[in-house]
Amino acid sequence: MIKGKFKEVHFRWIGIFLVAAVMAMIYKEPFERFEQKYLVSLTFTTVYWNGAFIIFMYFRRRYPQIRQTPKRLAITLLALFLLLTIGEPLLCLLLNTKSFEQVTDPSVVFSHVSTNLVVAFGIGSIYENVYFFEQWKKSIQLNEALKNQQIRTQFEVLQNQMSPHFLFNSLNTLTTLIAEDGKIAIEFTEKLSEVYRYILQNKDKEVVSLSEELEFAKNYAFLLKIRYPENLVTDFNVGQHYLDQSIAPLTIQILVENAIKHNRISKNHPLHVEIYVDQNGSIVVKNNLQKKNVIEKSTKTGLSNIRKRYAYFGQANIEVVATDRDFLVTVPLLQISNDTRKAMAPRM
């Protein structure tokens, strides 16, 4: 819609009066006085233009995305044709400009449709060009917003992972393992390096495959399990047929991190985290709810971060459910092919 001081409604009504004057001069209606022809033309133009505006707005809401433009235009053009074809005889009868026999004569009914369609197409092209430009501008703004959001995600995750607190716990755990079990110490070091490698390799990507994200999440869970050997249980239950679907990178890690950050973990209160796909094909991260009295320092942007990134993909339905016993976050999997994922990857 045309914005600024000169709004669409101003454009429409000025256009209605101007087009009505042009049509009154073009058409040879059975009126001697120009004023009479103009009033009839004004009625037709008002009904047609406002009707066309309603049609444009309806299908714009129904098919809002740029990739839906061909479908939206085809349906809109058909609806306009029906409006002009049906509206012509009805308005003629209402204004008493033609008899019933005339409006039921196909040669009379369709005599003005072609001219009306040309006018409607011309006006409609203005609406569509303005709308397309606005959508294009919004897509650029969304891309920029996503880039900024990804930068925040990278910073937040790397800050959490590489904070002195995390490094201290990891190195302290590694030191203990070296003294107690060299084999597990080597595995811990390997998993730790894989966690960092995944973050560095995927920090600039918009999406990754679910299989990649799960592998990363399992490595991350392994590190946590070493820290909380008997107090933390992580269950991964995802069918093979879901592994080729896509997910925003670090999504599962953020949700597991939130579960650790906000809940007590002890022998008396073990934390159980489940990662699975529900009947709707969405990934679910669920944990038993046992809130800490004092929560660790948090930026409180984890869930907000995920919501904003998924809104970019048109998937705003991130569900958060908290009961007396459990806390669940449901994130839709993205139907993006491997080829598309590669095309979306940043160019080096």
Question: What is the structure about, briefly put?
Answer:
This protein has helices at residues 8-26, 34-62, 69-95, 100-103, 106-109, 113-161, 164-180, 182-202, 210-227, 251-262, 302-312, 338-344, and strands at 208-209, 232-237, 246-247, 271-277, 282-288, 319-322, 326-332. It has twelve helices and seven strands.
Question: Please, could you describe this protein's structure?
Answer:
By secondary structure, the chain is an alpha+beta fold. The chain has 2 domains: about 10-140, no CATH class; about 160-345, 2-Layer Sandwich (Heat Shock Protein 90), CATH 3.30.565. The chain is about 65% helix and about 10% strand. The protein has 12 helices and 7 strands. It has helices at about 10-25, 35-60, 70-95, 100-105, 105-110, 115-160, 165-180, 180-200, 210-225, 250-260, 300-310, 340-345, and strands at about 210, 230-235, 245, 270-275, 280-290, 320, 325-330. A 5-stranded mixed β-sheet has the order 2-4-5-7-6, covered by helices on one side. A two-stranded antiparallel sheet has the order 1-3. Strand 6 and strand 7 (about 325-330) form a beta hairpin. Helix 2 runs antiparallel to helix 3 and helix 7 (about 165-180) runs antiparallel to helix 8 (about 180-200).
Parts with pLDDT < 50 across at least 5 consecutive residues? 1-6
Order of helices and strands: HHHHHHHHEHEEHEEHEEH
CATH class of the largest domain: Alpha Beta
What proportion strand? 5-15%
Spatial ordering of strands, largest sheet = 2-4-5-7-6
Task: Compile the SSE list and pairings.
Elements lengths: L7 H19 L7 H29 L6 H27 L4 H4 L2 H4 L3 H49 L2 H17 L1 H21 L5 E2 H18 L4 E6 L8 E2 L3 H12 L8 E7 L4 E7 L13 H11 L6 E4 L3 E7 L5 H7 L4
Parallel strand pairs: 2-4
Antiparallel strand pairs: 1-3, 4-5, 5-7, 6-7
